[in-house]
Here is the input.
Amino acid sequence: MFLDYFALGLLFFVAIVIFYGVIAIHDIPYEISKKRNHPHQDAIHYAGWVSLFTLHAIWPFLWIWSTLWREDRGWGFTKIQNEQSELHHEIGQLTEQVEKLTEKVAQLEVAQAKRPPAQAAQQGEDI
Here is the structure.
């Protein structure tokens, strides 16, 4: 008789521990987002509750979503954007330099073509 009640009590205890364990596990992404001051922490919290009904199929995506944001650097893409902006600026400068050099070469070719052949041959010997 005592063992029957003990087994029933143990069954209830295990059921309650599993129930609260699942709730605690599903809430991990929300706790991470709260700690990081995530701008979408409410959406992550609601999606965590929805994940209970999907047998936690979307839970890994919530965990990734909550860990992507950091308050000190945001989503982390600004560094890439800054590097791309700097590269774009450098490419613009190099393009301008190439255009100036192309114009200079064209001017030198025109000047070379206008010189008399004797003067061009003499200048070639000097070099």
